[in-house]
Design a protein that fits this description.
The chain is of the alpha/beta class and 284 residues long. It has helices at residues 4-9, 24-33, 55-72, 82-95, 105-114, 127-132, 134-142, 155-161, 168-183, 204-210, 220-234, 259-270; strands at 14-18, 39-43, 76-79, 101-102, 120-125, 147-152, 192-196, 216-219, 251-255, 279-281. Bound molecules: D-glutamic acid.
Amino acid sequence: MHSDSATSTAHLPIGVFDSGVGGLTVLRALKKALPHEDFLYLGDTARLPYGTKSGATVARYALQTTRVLVDQGIKLLVIACNTASSVALPGLAEAYPGLPVVGVIEPGARACCARAPHGRIAVIATNGTVRGAAYQTAILRHRPEATIATRSTQLFVALAEEGWTHGPEVEAVAERYLAPLMAEFPEGGPDCLVLGCTHFPAMAETIRKVLPEGVCLVDSAETTAESVAEELAERGLLKPRANSGDGSGSVRFFATDDPERFARVGEIFLGTPLAVGDVTLVDL
Ligand code: DGL
């Protein structure tokens, strides 16, 4: 039996935040795994990128974005941003002791460990995520014998934001970033490459072109959605089906800058149309 307070919060939406629109790849996976749930998504587009900023600044931004979502009423927070997941969890747990928080690093680490038969794992991420070594720490917890190499591929964020995900220029950038990373695995390359940033799934086809055959790509979105589903079930927080209407949940979008750009660029990551009228501008 779950407590009365769990029952009364189960109808609330799940809060999701990211530095911008990239986290919509995580929202897409969440909606697929939990179609009856309602979501609030906040993209801190005014302050993107987080990946080039200091850990202290990103942790402060994460507290501010979370405040907006908590004020609306949420039952669980998903940090869809890898950079924020790598630095903000302790501060959020302290500020909101009762709020379950799921980041993307731990689910991503679990996913790549499961897909690395020889324990050889390459990780690409933003400057901030690489600097904090959060993926290495999480991977080594599951696979202490793993061989891990990481590289910041920060330019991929700007390219994906511009919609530049294919073509010779993008391939040249990918080759320049990834060739030295692959060379760190002399025995036939890594088992897998972790896409440790919200924007990188959009570049997946191009990345695959420059990788040796057999290297699988790991995207944490789906495993994060699985973790959220498990967490909600364990805490008795799944939305009661009687409140689910026709079965599909709602999504409300918030951005800290230009809703028009959020909707236009967001479609690339969400994979479905997004109207500017669906996006509310908020000030932190
Ligand atoms: N959301 C960020 C991440 O996953 C990428 C964009 C940024 O640098 O803000 O790390």
